[in-house]
Amino acid sequence: VLVIDDDAAMRALAKRWLESKKIHCLEAKNGEEGVTLAAERHEDIDAIVCDVMMPVMDGFATIAELKKNPDTAMIPVIVLTAHANTEGDVVKGVEVGALDHLAKPFSGPVFLAKVNAACTRSRAERGLRKKLILAEETARIDALTGLLNRRSFDQRLREEIAFTKRHKTPFALLLLDVDRFKSVNDTFGHEEGDRVLQHVAAAMRAAIREEDACFRYGGEEFAVILRATDLAGGVRAGDRLLGVLVGRPTLLGPEREVRTITVSGGVALGTDERFDDIVTRADAAMYRAKEAGRARIVGED
Ligand SMILES: [Mg+2]
To answer: Which residues, 6+ apart, have CB-to-CB distance to 131 below 8 Å?
Structure first.
């Protein structure tokens, strides 16, 4: 808990009460110091107790500053008002974003009850924010490979089409399918199959440019959207990936058999005039790569 008060006796009292409940107390003797300290230590601070009557920057200006910084805006603040002007100060405090107030003089139990309530709320909100970030990530990322998932693919494809229409620069879509994946699963089991998918994902990260997004499209199919790239460029990216895969065979099964995993790929071009059937076209090209003997990348006609 951060206590911002110009009165040293008040700070000492608050610190004693807090420490009696094993709550660590940070102190600031004015608003400026409080705002700086809160910004530096925001991850450790569950609640702020802030006096109203302080020289230079009063409590309201201090709270307003705390609310401006996204790092400190979520920390609940309790204002300490002087008894004589409690009502007006409470109104102002609420207006600038304080959660609660305490009118001086107040007792230790009331102080601790309010501070504890603020801390509980703070920790609950922190937990929720973490879960929200995780949930957002789960919604975008394929858990097995760490690549972007199918849902992200659909979104990125729409964005890429919009970009292409606006800038009149084509983009390439590379669709990939792991060769003889079923035989890996049948021979070595699904866990090894999963490892093969992770192996391909790692090769994609190594072979594909940072600005091009790699996706697990579904099952053993992968996709790459290559911005401002023509058909030949898309085929080259696929060939680079094949090169990486051939250069790093993997070991499968209890006998650690050496296997070279390959992919077959099809590339189609999205232009400002033709884009809506791009997945179908890339898929048809990929099918031709399979027919021609696998382990190759084929561009659409
Ligand atoms: Mg004061």
So the answer is: none
Distance 122 CA to ligand 1 centre (A): 25
The residues annotated with a catalytic role in the active site are 220
Residues with CB under 5 A from ligand 1 (ion): 6, 51, 53-54
What is residue 158's three-state secondary structure?
A: helix
Q: Are 202 and 263 in contact (CB under 8 A)?
A: no
Q: Determine phi and psi for 288, rounding to 5 degrees.
A: -65, -35
CA of 55 to the centre of ligand 1 (A): 8
User: Is the predicted pLDDT of residue 274 greater than 90, yes or no?
Assistant: no
> Which pLDDT band, with edges at 50, 70 and 90, does 62 fall under?
very high
* Cα-based distances in Å from 290 to 45, 177, 265: 59, 9, 8
Give distance in angstroms: CA of 43 to centre of ligand 1. Answer: 26
What's the whole-model pTM score? 0.65
